[in-house]
Amino acid sequence: MGNFFRKLITLPQERRVFGLDLLRALAILGVLLSHAQLVYPPEQRGWFGFFATISGVLGVELFFVLSGFLIGSILLSLEPRFQQIKTLPIFWQRRWFRTIPNYLLFLILNIAASLAFQKAVPSIIPYLTFSQNWLWPHPGFFVEAWSLAVEEWFYLLFPISLYLLSKVFKSFNTAFILSTGFFILIPSLIRINWALTGLADWDENFRKIMLIRLDAMMYGVLAARIKKTIPQIWRRQNFLFFGAGVLTLYISWSYALGENLDTNFFAKTFLFSNTSIGFAFLLPIFDQWENVNKNIFSTAFQLIAVWSYSLYLCHLQVLQVINFINEFFRTTSFTIQTLFLFIFFTTSLIISSAIYTYFEKPLTNLRNYFSKS
Questions:
Q1: From CA 110, how far away is CA 120, in angstroms rounded?
Q2: Contact yes or no for 323/37 (Cβ under 8 A)
Q3: 80 secondary structure, DSSP code
Q4: pTM to 2 decimals?
Q5: Contact 32, 300 (CB under 8 A)
Q6: CA 135 to chain CA centroid, nearest Å
Q7: Distance (Å, rounded) from C-alpha 62 to C-alpha 279?
Q8: CA pair distance 328, 310, nearest whole angstrom
Q9: Burial level of 136, CB count in 10 A (0-12/13-18/19+)?
């Protein structure tokens, strides 16, 4: 039993950047916090509910930028052999071994949970093709999958765009510039058009629609491009970038939160762009934060970062069970609700660590075998 738990809290051997792990951990903790408030009745949430909701929104936006930064770094490293036709299948194979197994596992678990709680299960085909929120609101089933659809389509479409344009123009740089323009302008222009037509519901009709959120990851890719092409600016101006990022996020959200998000034009259009830009500006300083004294806090943040994907997928099902138990006891005691909050966090962390260690990581490691093959 000791070896079992010791394995759960063992960090992977590959080189990791502590600053980026810290951002991942903060992002997933923000998402957990946003849903953790649901253990309390609405009248008990108060300021906690408001803060938790915003932390969840920002957590997902930060994930998009971090994912774009990772994918951009990988694709830029492939530049010398990018026009080889086998490069893209290998890239997708490695990416999908990382993301798809966990996704399918939790798709099955969500189906089982819905049947167990006697809830309707929609057609699964859109979930298998990540088309459940392509240009329309995401269904109420497996709700956290909306952001995964954004990421999976970006993983597919952006490399294809780079490959085709580099073939046409015989230049990776030209292909990158044009692809960047497409992936920023098209989603932004659609958001502007929808906002001008009076479409409301900021969360369901703007934030969670796949096609108009692809630009969120593109800003992370741009950060990776800056790091590669002008590394001296990336290294020396990191505090300047950090200040610009904090200022961008503060001004944008201070204004937006004073307005009605469902009707405000800025909130439905440029707030998304500014949030992604703000987080991208934070990357240089965190990307260079590699050395850290190993202690319980630094290790905890890195472990949470490692478990973040499994944690993102499992925590709502944990919450569903806790709320079912909560309804059974029918108590509004603040102390009891806080105990449920503690149980929610600890159970989610334990389950995600087990899934990462015994399912996600072994299947991810298979990609090395198939890549060599």
A1: 11
A2: no
A3: G
A4: 0.94
A5: no
A6: 19
A7: 6
A8: 28
A9: middle
In one-letter notation, the amino acid at residue 238 is N
Helix spans in 117-171 (H):
125-128, 145-169
Mark 58-87 as b/e (b = at least 16 C-beta within 10 Å).
bbbbbbbbbbbbbbbbebbebbeebeeeeb
Structural tokens at position 313: 């997928």
Helix (H) or strand (E) holding 60: helix 42-77
DSSP 333: -
Q: Residue 3: its pLDDT value, please?
A: 64
Q: CA dist 208 to 83, 136, 186, Å?
A: 33, 9, 16
Would you state the structure tokens that stand for residue 347, as one six-digit string? 């159970």
CA separation, residue 45 to residues 28, 30, 37, 280 (Å): 20, 16, 7, 31
CA 5 to CA 1: how far, in whole Å? 7
Is-contact 282 62, C-beta < 8 A?
no
Place of tokens 């949970």: 113
The list of the chain residues with pLDDT below 70 reads 1-11, 13, 370-373
**How far apart are alpha carbons 360 and 313 in whole angstroms?**
12
Show Cβ contacts of residue 102 under 8 Å, excluding neighbours closer than 6 positions.
Answer: 309, 310, 313, 355, 359, 360
Task: State how far the alpha carbon of 241 is from the alpha carbons of 109, 217, 280, 282, in Å.
Answer: 42, 18, 9, 6
The CA-atom distances, in angstroms, between 60 and each of 33, 147, 214, 256, 264 are 12, 8, 13, 17, 21
Q: SS3 letters for 237-279? A: CHHHHHHHHHHHHHHHHHHHCCCCCCCCHHHHCHHHHHHHHHH
Calculate ∠ Cα 337-341-342, nearest 5°: 120
pLDDT digits (tens, 9 = 90+) for 52-105: 999 999 999 999 999 999 999 999 998 887 777 778 888 999 999 999 999 999
Angle between helices 270-287 and 42-77 (to 10 degrees): 60
pLDDT of residue 214: 97
Residue 152, helix vs strand vs coil:
helix
- CA angle at 214 for the pair 209 and 220, rounded to the nearest 5°: 140
